[in-house]
Amino acid sequence: MNIKKITTIIIALFCVIITVKAQVKTADTLYYGNNINSHEKFSAIDSMLIQSIDSSWINNCTVLISKRGKILFKKSYGRTEKGNEIPLDAIYRIASQTKAVTCVAALTLYEQGKFSLDDPVSRYIPEFKNMNVIKEYDKREGTYTVVPANREITIKDLFTHTSGIEYPEIGQYASLYAKSDIPAGWTNKSLILGDKIKELSK
User: Fold this and answer.
1) The pLDDT of residue 105
2) Residues 190 and 143 placed together within one structural domain of the fold
């Protein structure tokens, strides 16, 4: 699978927005475009999303894929919390869209050979060299002990959310982030991202 296919899949998956729990149900129209080869590709996406809802992995979603301004795939899945079918013009609360933009930008650089997924993050942010991981943590006291990490964090770890870095305000180590004044991404303070990333590495 080439990087363009991977990018397309990532964009499609970011269109899958989780809202309320529902049983499997499809609605509205499915577009396959003029390319007969597209039918098989979009059928695979369609089957995956139906299975995801049927297994309760997601509750409902609306997907739209376009190329050069032409809609190739458009379909809604699942039901609302009132039991109605999800319309194609449903309004969703969308969060974390920075991830979608960043992924596409990063994969574009990857396709150009600018970096490898196995590159250590420290190659680009030196502060992430020789990382430690928490061994024991006392949440009430806010104290902890660390041991050296078995290996460095890689770019792939960042893509797959397996770097060991968690969200500041909703993770189990929230108090440690608070002590270092590292926000979760929303704050009224005037901060420099680069400075906070260096603090995060500690």
Assistant:
1) 94
2) yes
Residues 105 and 137 in one domain: no
Q: What is the pLDDT of residue 142?
A: 78
Residue type, 106: A
Structure tokens at 117: 């997924």
Q: Yes or no: say if 53 and 24 are a contact pair by the CB < 8 Å rule.
A: yes
Give the span between the Cα atoms of 175 and 141, in whole angstroms.
10
Low-confidence ranges of the chain (pLDDT < 70): 1-39, 185
Rounded Cα distance between 130 and 153, Å, is 9
* Two structure tokens written together for 121: 């993050």
Can you name the residues that pair with 143 across neighbouring β-strands?
138
Residue 125 belongs to domain spanning = 121-200
CA distance 84 to 26: 11
pLDDT of residue 9: 47
In terms of DSSP bridges, do strands 60-67 and 132-138 run parallel, antiparallel, or are they unpaired?
unpaired
Residue closest to 15 by CA, chosen among 86, 74, 79: 74
**Residue 162 placed within a domain:** yes
